[in-house]
Amino acid sequence: MFCFVVLLVVGVYAAAAGLVGASGSVGLAKGSVPAAYQHLVQKWGNLCPAINPALLAAQLYQESGWNPKAQSHAAAQGIAQFIPGTWATHGIDGDGDGDRDVWDPADAIPSAASYDCELAGYVKKVPGDTTDNMLAAYNAGAYRVIQYGGVPPYTETRNYVKTIRTLEKSFAAPVTTVEPSRQAAGAIYYAQDKLGTPYLWGGNGTPEHGGRFDCSGLTKAAYASVGIELPRVANDQWNAGPHPARDELLPGDLVFFATDLSDPRSIDHVGIYVGGGYMIDAPRTGAVIRFDKIDTPKYFGATRVTSDGAAALPNGTGDRSVGS
């Protein structure tokens, strides 16, 4: 099996390197947005030229992780994390029911898009990319963008712009063949070396865990071995890069499984694809790390991990619990 995987990795990457896809408009990748919000994001993400559905999805994910009840220590509220003063000025009645409710995604998502487009209007004459300038205005204020003639030289603001533009790629439906990952082979080799290791829920492979892993602990460690830090939880790892279709999978892609195929928040398992319809995964308590088929009723989709994509995600050590 080892030789099979090595040959498959080399052969598939060589073939994929020359593929070119057709371009098209920005849409949402299948399964990237919870079904309950997909229509809102698709509709309002086309409100003005400065935004698109994938960009709006990236902002909402970054702000709340799709939690409509989210509330920050700074009093930011709802799925779009508006602070009360900003909501009072910029909140709109998105669903036309006669009220403006920051806790209702049917109002908050349209309001986020509307606010983005307002900011884009304020900075439309500023040199540079309009969307980058709009995001910078969202973070630092339109005045600072105008003052500096583009994205201000603030580390926080520049990181915010880069994070959202990177996450945008993980929510967008690919319009060309997704570029192969250069680090994928190393991640596979790491996982192969762990074959036969007993499963441990919450296991990170550390000495105190007896070198054992759960599913997302294995994928995190495999990519850490090649210098890419993934979040700890499987459903956070889903946004670590673009999403190739089932017939475009390459060795090293992360493959995900969920209890609700319309909601990425229900992802509860992840493995590393090795080709031929198989993955290496840490399946469950009582089992060992092994090769398993990916084609099951719970198959959700795949992610081609990128360094920038992983860096844009939560680090998994905050308020999201560990485990598969």
What is this structure's SSE topology?
Blueprint: H1 2-16, H2 35-44, H3 53-64, H4 84-90, H5 105-122, H6 130-140, H7 142-148, H8 155-171, H9 184-193, H10 215-224, H11 234-237, E1 254-258, E2 267-275, E3 278-281, E4 290-293, E5 299-303, H12 307-311
Antiparallel strand pairs: 1-2, 1-5, 2-3, 3-4
Helix pairs in contact: 2-3, 2-5, 3-8, 5-6, 6-7, 6-8, 9-10
Fold and architecture overview:
The chain has about 325 residues and is α+β, with helices and mostly antiparallel strands. The protein is about 40% helix and about 10% strand. The protein is built from twelve helices and five strands. A five-stranded antiparallel β-sheet has the order 4-3-2-1-5. A hairpin with a 2-residue loop joins strand 2 and strand 3. Helix 2 packs across helix 3, helix 3 crosses helix 8 and helix 6 packs across helix 8. The radius of gyration is 21 Å and the shape is elongated. The N terminus and C terminus are likely disordered.
Radius of gyration: 21 Å
What structural category arises from helix and sheet content? alpha+beta
Order of helices and strands: HHHHHHHHHHHEEEEEH
Which percent range fits the helix content?
25-40%
Shape: elongated
Parts with pLDDT < 50 across at least 5 consecutive residues: 1-24, 316-324
| Strand composition percent | 5-15%
Q: How many β strands by DSSP?
A: 5
Quaternary status of these chains? single chain
Number of helical stretches of at least 4 residues: 12
Alpha carbon gap, first and last residue:
26 Å
Main sheet properties: 5 strands, antiparallel
The whole-number mean of residue pLDDT values reads 88
Question: Largest sheet, order of strands side by side?
Answer: 4-3-2-1-5
